[in-house]
Design brief:
The protein is an all-alpha fold and about 400 residues long. It has 16 helices and 2 strands.
Length: about 400
C-alpha cells in the first residue's frame, strides 16, 4: 500500500503557523479592548489615563506588526476584519474627542472634524477595496510604510488632543491627514495597477509623484485661515508651508539622484519630473498672486516660458528627438525654489524680526525676489529656444 503523504503545516520561526496566528488574534483582541477602555476614560473625563492607554495600544500595534509579523501569516479575511475593527475603533476615539470638545467648549476645532471624516473615508475605502481584491482571488498587499506611518501619526495625534496640547494639535492633525491621503493614494495605485502590463513605480518616480499629490494640500495649508492676506495665517501653518516647499525641493533633488544611482531612469520619469516641478511651483506662484507677493504679469511670464518649453519638448518627442536639460534650466529651478523659500521664511514674523532692517524692506522684498525669478526664467526660456533651433526648423 502506498503511504499517505502528510502535509506539514507551515512554520514561522520554528512554530506552527496556526499557533502564531492564534497569538496575533489574541493580541489584536486585547488591543481592541484597550481602545474600548480609551473610549470609556474619555467619557469619564480621565484624559491622562486615556492617553496612557493610547500609548499602550500603540506599543501593542508595533508588537503585532513587527514582532509577531501578523501580516505575513494571518488569513486574508481574518486580516481584513481585524484591520476594520482596528480602524473603526481609531475613528471612534477621534470622534469621541471631537464630540467631547464640542460639548465642553460649544465649539470644536474644525480640523479635528476634518480628521474624523478622513479617518472614516479611509476605513470605508480600504474595506471596500480589500473586499474587491479578495473576491478577485488576489492577495491583499502588506501594509506599506505610508500606512504604518499614518497609523503611528494618528495614535500620536490622539494623545496630543487628549492632553489638550494646543500648540501641537493642528500640526499633528495635518501631518496625520497628509499621511492618510498618501497611504490611500498608494493603495489605490496598487489596486488599479495591472501587474501583467505595468511595472511598479520606482522609488524615484514615487518621490516625483509625491510632489503632484501634495501640491493641492499646499493650497489648503497656505490659505488655512480663509484669508488672502498670508501674514494673518497661523505661525504653525506658515511653518508647515515652508516645510512642504523644502520637501518639494528635497524630493526634486532625490528623484533624479536615485534614478541615476539605482539605474531606474525611465521615460515616465523624464516627463514626470519637469511636470511635477511646474505643477508645484506654479501653484505656489498663484498663491503669491492672491496674497500680493507677486504681480499677475510676472507669474504670467513665468507660465508663458514654462508652457512654451514644454511645447518645444513635446514637438521634439514627436520627431523622436531628445531635448536635453540645459544648465540654465537647472539654475532656473534652483533659483525659483530658493526665492520661494526666502519669501515664505520672511513671512514668518519671528524670523523676520531677527534680521536687522529686514522688516523695513519686507513690503517690497517679495516683489523684488519674484522680479529676479521672472528675469532668470525668461532668460532660461530664450536659451532653450536658441539651443533647439534644429527642432524648430522641422516645423517652420
Amino acid at each position: 500500500m502506498a503511504e499517505e503523504k502528510v502535509t506539514e503545516e507551515p512554520k514561522l520561526n520554528g512554530e506552527p503557523a496556526e499557533e502564531v496566528r492564534l497569538r496575533t488574534r489574541i493580541w489584536s483582541v486585547l488591543r481592541a479592548i484597550v481602545f474600548v477602555a480609551v473610549l470609556v476614560f474619555i467619557w469619564q473625563g480621565m484624559a491622562k489615563t486615556a492617553c496612557a492607554f493610547v500609548a499602550i495600544a500603540m506599543i501593542m500595534g508595533w508588537v503585532n506588526l513587527y514582532q509577531l509579523r501578523a501580516q505575513e501569516i494571518e488569513k486574508p479575511y481574518y486580516r481584513l476584519w481585524l484591520n476594520f475593527i482596528d480602524g473603526f475603533l481609531a475613528f471612534m476615539v477621534m470622534t469621541s474627542i471631537f464630540v467631547r470638545d464640542l460639548m465642553q467648549q460649544q465649539q470644536a476645532e474644525k480640523l479635528l472634524g476634518v480628521g474624523c471624516v478622513v479617518l472614516l473615508a479611509r476605513l470605508i475605502a480600504h474595506t471596500l477595496f480589500s473586499l474587491g481584491v479578495l473576491r478577485e482571488g488576489k492577495q491583499l498587499p502588506r501594509k506599506r510604510r505610508w500606512g504604518k506611518l499614518s497609523n503611528i501619526s494618528i495614535t500620536i495625534t490622539m494623545g496630543v488632543y487628549l492632553l489638550n496640547l494646543e500648540d501641537y494639535q493642528q500640526i499633528s492633525m495635518v501631518s496625520s491627514i497628509l499621511l492618510i491621503l498618501a497611504a490611500m493614494a498608494a493603495y489605490a495605485y496598487w489596486y488599479y495597477r495591472d501587474a501583467a502590463h505595468r511595472k511598479p513605480l520606482s522609488i524615484a518616480s514615487q518621490l516625483t509623484m509625491s510632489r503632484i499629490v501634495l501640491t493641492p494640500f499646499f493650497l489648503w495649508v497656505f490659505f488655512y485661515d480663509n484669508d488672502l492676506n498670508y501674514s494673518n495665517n497661523s505661525i504653525v501653518f506658515k511653518s508647515l508651508s515652508l516645510i512642504m516647499v523644502l520637501g518639494f525641493m528635497l524630493t526634486d533633488f532625490l528623484d533624479g539622484y536615485l534614478a541615476r544611482k539605482l539605474g531606474e531612469v525611465s521615460t515616465l520619469g523624464k516627463y514626470l519630473d519637469p511636470f511635477s516641478d511646474k505643477i508645484s511651483n506654479m501653484t505656489i506662484f498663484m498663491c503669491f498672486i492672491a496674497t500680493g507677493y507677486a504681480p499677475v504679469w510676472m507669474v504670467a511670464l513665468i507660465y508663458f516660458r514654462e508652457s512654451s518649453v514644454e511645447t518645444l519638448r513635446t514637438l521634439a518627442a514627436s520627431e523622436g528627438l531628445i531635448m536635453p536639460a540645459r544648465r540654465s534650466g537647472k539654475w532656473k529651478t534652483a533659483l525659483q525654489g530658493t526665492g520661494i523659500v526666502m519669501i515664505l521664511l520672511g513671512a514668518i514674523d519671528p524670523v523676520r524680526m531677527l534680521i536687522p532692517g529686514f522688516n523695513d524692506i519686507w513690503d517690497s522684498f517679495p516683489q523684488i525676489v519674484m522680479g529676479v525669478i521672472t528675469t532668470i526664467t525668461i532668460l532660461s526660456g530664450i536659451d532653450y529656444f536658441v539651443s533647439s533651433k534644429h527642432i524648430l526648423k522641422k516645423f517652420v
